[in-house]
From TrEMBL:
<dbReference type="Pfam" id="PF00588">
    <property type="entry name" value="SpoU_methylase"/>
</dbReference>
<dbReference type="GO" id="GO:0032259">
    <property type="term" value="P:methylation"/>
</dbReference>
<keyword id="KW-0489">Methyltransferase</keyword>
<dbReference type="InterPro" id="IPR001537">
    <property type="entry name" value="SpoU_MeTrfase"/>
</dbReference>
<feature type="domain" description="RNA 2-O ribose methyltransferase substrate binding">
    <location>
        <begin position="96"/>
        <end position="167"/>
    </location>
</feature>
<comment type="similarity">
    <text>Belongs to the class IV-like SAM-binding methyltransferase superfamily. RNA methyltransferase TrmH family.</text>
</comment>
<dbReference type="GO" id="GO:0005737">
    <property type="term" value="C:cytoplasm"/>
</dbReference>
<dbReference type="GO" id="GO:0006364">
    <property type="term" value="P:rRNA processing"/>
</dbReference>
<dbReference type="InterPro" id="IPR029028">
    <property type="entry name" value="Alpha/beta_knot_MTases"/>
</dbReference>
<dbReference type="GO" id="GO:0003723">
    <property type="term" value="F:RNA binding"/>
</dbReference>
<protein>
    <submittedName>
        <fullName>MRM3 methyltransferase</fullName>
    </submittedName>
</protein>
<dbReference type="InterPro" id="IPR053888">
    <property type="entry name" value="MRM3-like_sub_bind"/>
</dbReference>
<dbReference type="GO" id="GO:0008173">
    <property type="term" value="F:RNA methyltransferase activity"/>
</dbReference>
<dbReference type="InterPro" id="IPR051259">
    <property type="entry name" value="rRNA_Methyltransferase"/>
</dbReference>
<dbReference type="InterPro" id="IPR029064">
    <property type="entry name" value="Ribosomal_eL30-like_sf"/>
</dbReference>
<dbReference type="InterPro" id="IPR029026">
    <property type="entry name" value="tRNA_m1G_MTases_N"/>
</dbReference>
<keyword id="KW-0808">Transferase</keyword>
Amino acid sequence: AALTRGRRRREMAALGMGLGGRRWVRALRRSPVRVLPPPQEPAEEPRSPVGPPAVERSSAGPGLWYEKAAPGDGRLRKVVTVAKSRSFRDRHGKVLLEGLRLVRDALEAGAVPCSLFFSAAGLLRELPQERLKGASLVKVKFEEIKSWSDLVTPQGVIGIFSKPDPAKMSYPAAQLASSVPMVLICDNIRDPGNLGTVLRSAAGAGCEKVLLTKGCVDPWEPKVLRAGMGAHFRIPIVANLDWESVPSNLPATVQVCVADHKDPGAQAEAEPVSQGAGRPSSASGNPKTPVKSKPRAAPPEHEDGEGMEGGCTPELTTRYYYESWIRAPVAVVVGGETHGLSPGALHLAASTGGKRLVIPMVPGVDSLNSAVAAAIVLFEGRRQLLQRNKHEDKRQKVPVG
């Protein structure tokens, strides 16, 4: 019996240990399981308003994001296309501007940027940042900009803009306050450098607007833009006009004058030297006398003789540019060096009582740069207009009686 009880105790002890072991195992099974969260994905990079995700934040200010262009970025090829193709510019309504000053002038005047390529983020601080928020900003290497640019020393900024609408632009207040009632009409000016310089002279003389007839070079060509030095965004420019639509862009009571470096009287038979060598004179000895112009063939743009009356140009009163010829408002036509003035320009001048403005030159010189001629006549016209306004103000201040 004692042996039996001892065996039972041992069996019960062994059973207790087994139960304890089961409880321990069961306790492990019933312990709470820790739930591990899924691995966190990297936060998404902020996106640029236009284009792929930005990889670098602009230091120019809040709200501006830009990206680095990858090698072979297709958008960069568009820069060259816009620069060289007039048909692309006309079809898509895009223009290319290069350089800090030109891009800044365009932004301040209200031009809409589409894309801006730059070589250093610091360049963005020199531009009106609030006007860049809707554009695609792309940082590229300076070497790439240098390969696109026609400039010897590129500034590292190239922008693609929507072609500006002169009716929607906001021109500088100082420019508008200093303007005079004078309009410039460019006729057959085909050299980009000449046209850019003409536009710069028109802005400097305070013209109200510039009209370009068909046959002129595209004013948004890169060479014209560079020569204009920002004039495109200081004065309204209306391009690609035919002579039938020119009057609708002029004031109702305007007088149209034409600039000419050839004195009709000087082309006649030379007078005796005793009358004064080197002094151009009309056939009657008085440059103010109307001169009958000789028949001339129409230039290539007017092979059908548009605006010609019996193959002859109309009679215009001749004035030297430094004599009194202003009657406000006034429009001045400047022709190209190769083809000169169109018959349409001469007939428009005759219909408004305009004059032929002669810039006398020494004998033997038969050509004058169009940009130089425009500058001479425009600044003289400004001088006469301001002088006339001054005299009128004095008359108004003098008490009557």
